[in-house]
Amino acid sequence: MSKEREIRVMSGWFMLLVELLLLAGGIRLFVHSVSDRTLDLWPFLGAIAMILLFALFANGFFTLQPNEARVLILFGSYRGTVRTAGFHWTNPFNSKPKISLRSRNLNGERLKVNDKRGNPIEIAAVVVWRINDTAEALFDVENYSEYVRIQGESAVRHLASTYAYDHGEQHEITLRSGLDEVSANLRKELQERLDKAGVVVEEARLSHLAYAPEIASAMLRRQQAEAIIAARQMIVQGAVGMVEMALKELFEKNVVHLDEERKAAMVSNLLVVLCGESEVHPVVNAGTLYT
After folding, report:
1. Is residue 289 situated within a structural domain?
2. Rounded distance, CA 261 to CA 91, Å?
3. How many angstroms separate the CA atoms of 149 and 205, rounded?
4. Measured distance CA(116)–CA(174) in Å, rounded
5. Lowest-confidence segment of 13-27, 85-99, 238-252 by average pLDDT
6. What is the pLDDT of residues 46-82, one digit of tens each?
7. 11 and 17 in contact (C-beta within 8 Å)?
8. Tens of pLDDT along 74-103?
9. Any idea what the CATH number is for the domain that residue 203 is in?
10. 132: domain range?
């Protein structure tokens, strides 16, 4: 495993002054060597040397913006990483690949996988990441951007197979109900996978979650049936409470005395009125309750 080490380099402005002096000196020596229409060898060679040094040193200049870094490599050996923004100069024989340290978004593609219960679902995630260790990113993996993409897809597939889409057991976290917990686990797994590439995962969240098209209609009908059942349960519970309250009020206020059979009939009628879906049209009894 490689490890980043930060290195300081010379100011580019100082070396720019040196370059200008070399260029001026080389031109002056060259003019002096041919001024008398005869070639003065040593001044001429000095002028050529200074111009060659000027051209060689010019290859050592580089600039860095905020949140950028340059990795310095000398003949295949890692020398260090420059992170300070500005105008710099280094050994012209160093190669200087540039790496961005800014945060990046990985908008994952929609993947078709099976959840914990074997149901086919579609899932996708958005990952915010950045380079933390430039040496690991450059030397320990072949292509860190592609590495992040592939490991992100693998982590999402594993996550989907670990949780049920919905309707889990009691207190069980599902992909739909436990979004925060699922996102935290996705970020943790991604960080473990990307540590060797020098990458920090700042955020990971699901961006798309749905049943696969072949079972979507069946699952929609199931959800509708469950919603209807839940609504019916609430209606029945409310109706029973209202009937209980009505009987209690009639008894306590001594409005009417009903035997058990008439109580049962009243309860049945009230439940029909309160729980029925269509509008109820009551029949007025002009006689007595017992006819």
Report:
1. no
2. 104
3. 15
4. 9
5. 238-252
6. 888 989 999 999 999 999 999 999 999 999 899 999 9
7. no
8. 998 999 999 999 999 999 999 999 999 999
9. 3.30.479.30
10. 104-211
Nearby residues of 21 by Cβ (< 8 Å), 6 or more positions away: none
Token couple for 33: 């060597």
User: In terms of DSSP bridges, do strands 104-107 and 86-89 run parallel, antiparallel, or are they unpaired?
Assistant: unpaired
Q: Quick one: which H or E segment has residue 47? A: helix 41-57
Residue 187 burial class via C-beta count within 10 angstroms: exposed 0-12, middle 13-18, buried 19 and up: buried
The two tokens of residue 165 are: 């889409």
How many folded domains does the chain comprise? 3
Residues 6+ apart with CB under 8 A from 250: 256, 258
Q: Specify the pTM.
A: 0.69
Contacts of 115 (CB under 8 A, 6+ apart): 121, 160, 161, 163, 164, 165, 175
> How is residue 49 written in tokens?
């040397």
285 falls within a domain: no
How far is it, in rounded angstroms, from Cα 107 to Cα 55? Answer: 44
